[in-house]
Amino acid sequence: MTKSSLPIILILSGPNLNLLGQRQPEIYGTATLADHMNRAKQTAAELGFEIESLQAQSSGEIVTAIHNARSRCAAIIINPGALTHFSWSLNDALSTFSGPIVEVHLSNPATRDPWRHESVVAPVASGSIVGFGAKGYTFAINAVATLLADKK
Ligand code: DQA
């Protein structure tokens, strides 16, 4: 198989997002993580990108994936789940990545529990897309494409 040379967008998902579709569907919707990733792959292909994705329950695995992305990936889209609100190791790791970083949340954390109001990822992201449910990943890929085109 020939390896594609399209620029890679890495989509990272934090703890509990493997349960999308079953987990609080009234908040997160009925689509599974695989549904979101399939739609993301379609949008990315239309815009000339390839998607790699990883879901992990711990920040260490996500930190390692960010390190590995540094020389290989054009952009990172990340929904860190609850790690969003306290994982400074994610903040440190993301700040070593030089391409666009888009933070995505299916829900709008600002309208929920007070402990969800702070994002420690937002300060090192190019921008955040929150509260648009399933459309969030599509918006994020379009944002990445625009940011990368602006850099050319
Ligand atoms: C979430 C919001 C977080 O507060 C929560 O811990 C999640 C999902 C979202 O996509 O809305 O796990 O990141």
Write the layout of secondary structure elements.
Elements: E1 8-13, H1 25-28, H2 33-47, E2 50-55, H3 59-69, E3 75-79, H4 88-94, E4 101-105, E5 127-130, H5 135-151
Parallel strand pairs: 1-2, 1-3, 3-4, 4-5
The protein binds 1,3,4-trihydroxy-5-OXO-cyclohexanecarboxylic acid (DQA).
Model description:
The chain has helices at 25-28, 33-47, 59-69, 88-94, 135-151, and strands spanning 8-13, 50-55, 75-79, 101-105, 127-130. It is of the alpha/beta class and 152 residues long. It has one domain (8-151): Dehydroquinase, class II (Rossmann fold). Bound molecules: 1,3,4-trihydroxy-5-OXO-cyclohexanecarboxylic acid. The site of 1,3,4-trihydroxy-5-OXO-cyclohexanecarboxylic acid has 10 residues, from loops.
| Overall pLDDT metric | 96
Distinct ligand kinds: 1,3,4-trihydroxy-5-OXO-cyclohexanecarboxylic acid
Main sheet characteristics: 5 strands, parallel
In the CATH hierarchy, what is the class? Answer: Alpha Beta
Number of helices: 5
- By secondary-structure content and strand pairing, the structural class works out as alpha/beta
CATH homologous superfamily? Dehydroquinase, class II
CATH topology: Rossmann fold
Q: Mind telling me the C-alpha Rg?
A: 14 Å
- Strand ordering within the main sheet: 2-1-3-4-5
Broad shape? globular
Fraction in beta strands: 15-25%
Q: Write down the domain tally.
A: 1
- The second-level CATH architecture is 3-Layer(aba) Sandwich
Distance from N terminus to C terminus (CA atoms, Å) equals 30 Å
